[in-house]
Amino acid sequence: MSVFQATASAPVNIACIKYWGKRDTKLILPTNSSLSVTLDQDHLRSTTTSRADPSFKKDTLWLNGKDDPIKEGGRLATCINELKRLRKVLVEDKDASAPKLSTYAVHIASYNNFPTAAGLASSASGFAALVSSLAKLYELPSTPSELSLIARQGSGSACRSLFGGYVAWEMGTKADGSDSYAVEVAPQSHWPEMHAVICVVNDAKKGTSSTSGMQRTVETSALLQHRIKHVVPKRMADISAAIQARDFDAFAQITMADSNQFHAVALDTEPPIFYMNDVSKAIIALIVEYNRVALEKTGHLKAAYTYDAGPNAVIYTLQENAKEIVELIHKYFPQKEAFNDRFQLFGGEGVKGKVVEGFNE
Ligand code: DP6
């Protein structure tokens, strides 16, 4: 008997222009376009295996070894059903000899090799890996942009993890969401010197989830309206141009400004949301000072911090400065634990990075 099984993996992406706000919560259509860098390192990815079998009773997901119920009508069910529909329409209806996998239940096992829901975008790599593994299992002829339309309905930021390198999520204008998908801005090879230093300030599950936090912001923040109309469109164009030109100064300025504004709209939410803690803020102060000295000496910036919905810092920098930044972080933020094997520079197709863990808070 044939075994129908496929495994795929997807890395985390960290946004430089943040997605924060939905105009349609069911289809997950954003209030603004966003842009991210996909990290590719062994330590920050989700790997998912999917298996279809006529003997399976119902679709089941195990997340990091634990049964994770699939809620009817929920995001997971939406993604699985949409992929089954595509299997039927694009494969089975066209080839009568193709196994009717769309009628079988699936068992899905997904594993994150980093803390789940700690502001490290686990839902992004998770849904991207899930969609990729089912697309592989079903032998769908779909492009990454087409698959991003489905991953988007699992978690908005997941649509960007279907690509490596520099990725934009175009917000689109259509009510059905058919033009709200991810596109590649540039491959990793276009600017391979880009590195990310990830500082795990706290790996506990965060207090306010992105989903509920951003909805509250949409409902209550006047600053968000200004941001989506008057700030993000120009930033999207400017940062795309900076990436094309490999202009780190412009890339860093825009990335830090957008992180700051995202946290400002979180604070402008009623009741206010605080994602950064004192360590996060101290890392900002350190990077600001580091850049001030660099600017004075060389006329250029050396680092760009950015924070998602949690206290962990991601510092983008060029390869030549990565070691210095890690040393600086270690010097000013003594580590709880001894360094471990995570302190290597990571290779692969995406942007290389380092993980620095265990800050004293
Ligand atoms: C701050 O994609 O996790 O990381 O679509 O509700 O699942 P849902 O939200 P999610 O939000 C990510 C928010 C962010 C910014 C970003 O990644 O662009």
UniProtKB/TrEMBL annotation:
UniProtKB keywords: ATP-binding, Lipid biosynthesis, Lipid metabolism, Lyase, Nucleotide-binding, Steroid biosynthesis, Steroid metabolism, Sterol biosynthesis, Sterol metabolism
Catalytic activity: (R)-5-diphosphomevalonate + ATP = isopentenyl diphosphate + ADP + phosphate + CO2
GO molecular function: ATP binding; diphosphomevalonate decarboxylase activity
Gene3D superfamilies xrefs: 3.30.230.10, GHMP kinase, C-terminal domain
Segments forming domain Diphosphomevalonate decarboxylase-like N-terminal: 10-182
Keyword Lipid biosynthesis: yes
Amino-acid biosynthesis keyword on record: no
Any one Gene Ontology cellular component term annotated for this protein: cytosol
Superkingdom to which the source organism belongs: Eukaryota
The protein's name in its UniProt record: Diphosphomevalonate decarboxylase
Native source organism of the sequence: Cylindrobasidium torrendii FP15055 ss-10
